[in-house]
Amino acid sequence: MAHPAPKHPFSRLPAPRIREHLFRLALVVLASVIMAVNINSFVEAGGLFPGGFNGLTLLIQRSAQQFWHLSLPFSLINFLLNAVPAVISFRLIGRRFTLYSCLMIVLTSVLTDLLPSVPLTNDVLLICIFGGMINGFSISLCLLGRATSGGTDFIAVALSERLNVDAWNYILLGNAAMLAVAGLLFGWDKALYSIIFQFASTQVVHMLNPRYKRTTLFIISDKSEQIYEQIRGSTHHGATLFQGTGLYNGEPRSMIYSVIAGDQVKRVTRAVRAIDPKAFINILKTDQVAGNFYQTPND
Q: Using one digit for the tens of pLDDT, what is the confidence trace for 109-168?
């Protein structure tokens, strides 16, 4: 009797999960193409050093070429530098997150070696600003696909998840040591222009990626129980209920206090409006949370 052919692993996944993985894959591929083109078109043209391990890779590559006349491939150096952070990410963050991140690293490295260098402008200031913005956009796409471009991004995500802090501005400070070495070896003008590049990149990531931001909600409504159930069901975050008195009319009022992730704010506020169109919502930026805060897993 013939045995049925084994099913493909993806056939066991529900359709929404397959679409989710295809979406993540598409974002990672697109992000890697944009980052590789940006390195060849802007970074190389300006002689800049982007942040993280891509910048460190270029620093090693250019140092080997200038001082030892060795032509080292971008991909080889980048793979070696990312090996240890990838193992740490696999243990601390998750398997799928790390695999998608490794795909991003491999594609970016290989495409950087294969794609031709096509400078779009010789104006270094334009290269810094627009190259930095494009770099930040590619990183944001990658983060939207729940992956990273590797290196220091692994560290930033781990800090954001483990310590509940927005670590991207701290990564900018961490790149200062690399730029100091680059300044000593290749001139301070390139290092200082690279700071502008990295600052533009970091600010774009900070603006486009609200996942690791914390937002406090104060919601005044007569339908507090329904609103709390909606918050808990859609975000897995808790809330605290305060009873008070509206001083304008002296009527008793209920106020819900909750802290949620920045990328959940629009979804929650729309749901609150649907439950109670008269609800009053105060949205506050939260710099840091200490205690038990649920973070949606990257995996």
A: 999 999 998 888 889 999 999 999 999 999 999 999 999 988 887 877 777 777 666 666
User: Quick check: 143 and 209 in contact, CB under 8 A?
Assistant: yes
**Rounded to the nearest 5 degrees, what angle is found at the Cα of 235, between the Cα atoms of 232 and 238?**
45
Which class in CATH covers the domain with range 213-286? alpha beta
Q: Are the C-beta atoms of residues 223 and 289 closer than 8 Å to each other? A: no
Token code pair at residue 293: 């805060």
**In Å, what is the CA distance from 47 to each residue of 99, 129, 197?**
31, 14, 11
CA distance 178 to 49: 9
What are the residues facing 280 on neighbouring strands? 220
Number of helices (H) and strands (E) in the chain: give both, helices first.
Answer: 12, 4
The answer to whether 204 touches 231, Cβ cutoff 8 Å, is no
Q: Give how far the C-alpha of residue 256 lies from the chain's centroid of Cα atoms, to the nearest Å.
A: 30
Listed by start position, the domains of the chain span 14-210, 213-286
